[in-house]
Specification:
Two copies of one chain form a homodimer. Chain A is mainly alpha-helical and 193 residues long. Chain A contains eleven helices and no strands. In chain A, helix 5 crosses helix 11, helix 9 packs antiparallel against helix 10 and helix 10 crosses helix 11. Chain A binds a DNA duplex (30 and 30 nucleotides) through helix 3.
DNA sequence: CGCAGAAGCATAACGCTGTTATTGGCCATA
DNA sequence: TATGGCCAATAACAGCGTTATGCTTCTGCG
């Protein structure tokens, strides 16, 4: 219901009438509406993780990093409402992220951080690159692109896809990669869709 | 009320009792609660604009660009709830951005876009830099940092400030600036606070 | 096999939300 | 002064999350 009809449609009464039960069903099984929302985003994190794991590996670590970012954007576009709740926007039915939720969310950074390290090990990125810091910068960019796209703020002459490509290429270049090599790797990871 | 007590506290009844009136006041003066929220974010855009205009100019265009991003982050931290509604997160009382709102929001990109052009004109950025595309990439990064910080997602060993500094330096480097020059300009724009 | 216990759900209600029709009062103008 | 129109207070409606009550049903033990 959250994915198909938006946050406003996710009410206890609509839920229970949809499954043919009474409002008590929510409270016996979940305790409260915020707790129910928490289960929804837990499911969202699992789906996110499954998508990331399903991505095929590549011999090109920069392309693999770009591929992870592509998966990120695809998930955010596929279920924008779920994504928004998962990462702290749109307080839904009084739900607020707790520390454990955030830790689950931070797990998504592990794969790209390792990819960044492989980029450095392969000589594409500088050897002294701070993978922990870089992955946070990339995280912020990906989140910004996802949320601004959802809000309709990526407008004018450039599409969200162009912004994504530019961001990924510039990220690799700033990390030490060659401009042509970065462009080729990003293009290889993003164009087959 | 939105700024001080959060989105949940901004209800029609709380508003009117705070000013000593009845619920009708909202509807005679604004028409609906979403329309009232619209006026709130309009005010937010004006405050944002005033902050950007109040920033002193600099002879160093890269430092000026970094200063604009610093103002951006300061605004987002000063009034996070207002900021979140302005840029499309947290649907508040059924309010949704319309095209005109988004255009007001996109105006904030004008100053940094011009700063990027000055960077190119001064030889710091590549002469063929696409300022329109670059400013959107920067916009996404700034929005991501602001929102992830608000949600508590910038954790671990790095602070939001470090992520901001890294992002700005890497942005300048990818645009063509020298690494040392970029670091110096960003540091000059961000450290006096 | 039968009874006791517990677990789960439906009903109804409380206080809250945004919204509105009705009613009354105030103020400005002729 | 009288009259017109604007404005707001009151009360109500539908919907929200939540909960106390009571009934039903299912489980497990003697």
């Amino acid at each position: 219901m959250l994915a198909e009809q938006g946050p406003a449609a996710l009410s206890a009464r609509r839920l229970v009438t949809a499954v043919g039960a009474s409002t008590m069903a929510v409270y016996t099984h979940f305790g409260s509406m915020p707790a129910l929302v928490r289960e929804v985003i837990r499911e969202g994190f699992e789906r996110f993780h499954a998508r990331a794991l399903a991505m095929e590996r590549s011999a090109d670590p920069v392309a693999e990093l770009a591929g992870l970012c592509r998966v990120y954007q695809e998930f955010a576009r596929a279920e924008p409402e779920v994504y928004a709740v998962m990462f702290g926007d749109s307080v839904l039915a009084g739900f607020e992220l707790d520390e454990e939720d955030r830790k689950m969310g931070a797990v998504v950074l592990r794969a790209p951080r390792d990819a960044i390290r492989r980029c450095a090990a392969a000589g594409r990125f500088r050897a002294d690159a701070d993978a922990d810091l870089l992955v946070r910068q990339l995280f912020a960019s990906m989140h910004g692109i996802a949320q601004l796209t959802r809000a309709g703020y990526i407008m004018g002459d450039h599409t969200p896809h162009q912004v994504l490509v530019g961001t990924l290429v510039d990220f690799a270049v700033a990390a030490g990669d060659g401009a042509d090599a970065a462009r080729a790797s990003v293009a290889a990871a993003l164009t087959d869709a």
